[in-house]
Structure prediction request, 206 residues.
Amino acid sequence: MDLGANVHCDETILFDFAVLGSVYAEVVGHMPKPKLGVLNIGSEETKGNETLVHLNKILMANKDVLPYEYLGFVEANDISAGRVQVVVTDGFTGNIVLKTVEGTAKLIKRVIVENFKKSVLAIIGAFFLVHVFKRLKHKIDPRSYAGATFLGLRGFAVKTHGNSDALAFANSIRYASDLTHANLNGLIEERARALADVRAQIKNEE
Prediction:
């Protein structure tokens, strides 16, 4: 949160992202009280710009009333390590992280394929690991994921990647259909009302 829609974000927008992302993780990801962190260049409370430091201060002070487990600042390597389930950041940084992850996945695939072609023994070994590679491909293939979901709307919109193919579009349509059967927007409205006082603290101190 965000993957590229909002390049410039103040504290209140980032706070809203935390609400949206935590509800999404709970409803769609089936993660009760997900672990949430704010992406930064370090985990220390003094790191980052004034916007992030201010947001972290308010969230830390209200940890007991938040509907998610707030971890504070997290770094990019915490994402792949599985330490955090919801990462809050602006769209500029989030899009760079997304493209880096996708590029790394393609690199892994290319290196594996190239190395298997160099040895008969490697080809034989790959035959016995075909099911493992299928699971890995599904895990790192961006087409397996529907796309970026625009949360906070009075409906559902799924933004596919610029180079999406038929499989990616099919998954996006299936995903959008599934969202209509979940009470995602209703719960978002409920959580937003419940956390209005915390949001007001951020707004009043800006």
Observations:
- The chain has one domain: 11-205.
- The first helix runs from residue 11 to 27.
- Residues 57 and 99 are 30 Å apart (CA to CA).
